[in-house]
Write a structure and sequence with these properties.
It contains seven helices and five strands. The chain has a five-stranded parallel β-sheet, with helices on both faces. Helix content is 41%, strand content 16%. The chain has helices at residues 23-36, 46-49, 68-79, 96-103, 127-139, 154-157, 168-193, and strands at residues 9-14, 40-44, 82-87, 114-119, 144-151. It is α/β, with parallel strands linked by helices. It is globular, with a radius of gyration of 16 Å.
């Protein structure tokens, strides 16, 4: 009998700072699902971090001189095996808080997969933002897995605690996370063997 694979560690990046944001429901859903699978999950919430609009990237500070919240994120990002991005859709694009959160770092993302959980108030589930987001994630060095996990009509699909209110969400999420884990384990193995630079 083969033993169960060891747990992994993931960062869940939430992309909204709006007062009445729905993305926190999707973030709670994902955090609960990862923990149910035995993984360590850390929520990265720009509302709590209060990052300024990008002036200097983390790597542009002298060693030890970066603000504490950036230092903590850098430490977290170097430790995790992948990134799950929670993105709404703002005018067919990426929420500004998410873009700002992402752009503070670069090398810390390298060689780790990303997966997109997108949502919207309407029927398309944020997929148009996900299309734009893929380009950014690839440029940052965390390639996106082929699947997405869209959540249409999020206010009805998830309650405030992130509990699904229909059968579609857990079915889609489970398939999505199966695929994400596969890529995360593959890249984890390759990082151990060495990276191109």
């Amino acid at each position: 009998m083969s033993s169960a694979p060891p747990p992994m560690s993931f960062a869940v990046l939430l992309g909204s700072v709006r007062r009445d944001r729905m993305g926190i429901r999707a973030a709670r859903l994902v955090m609960q699902a990862l923990k149910a699978r035995g993984h360590a999950a850390q929520l990265v919430d720009p509302m709590e971090l209060q990052l300024p609009l990008l002036d200097r990237m983390y790597k542009e500070y002298e060693p030890g001189a970066a603000p504490e919240n950036l230092q903590q994120l850098a430490t977290l990002y170097r430790r995790v095996d992948g990134f799950l991005i929670i993105s709404g859709e703002y005018n067919h694009g990426i929420p500004p808080a998410l873009k700002n959160l992402l752009d503070h770092f670069l090398e810390e993302y390298f060689w780790r997969p990303s997966g997109i959980v997108c949502y919207s108030a309407g029927m398309f589930g944020g997929v148009r933002a996900a299309v734009a987001l893929r380009t950014t994630l690839a440029e940052l060095g965390m390639p996106g897995i082929p699947s997405e996990c869209p959540i249409p009509r999020i206010a009805a699909a998830l309650d405030e605690d992130g509990k699904p209110q229909n059968e579609h969400v857990p079915r889609t999420l489970n398939r999505f996370l199966d695929e994400f884990e596969w890529y995360a384990r593959a890249l984890q193995r390759q990082r151990r063997e060495g990276t191109p630079y």
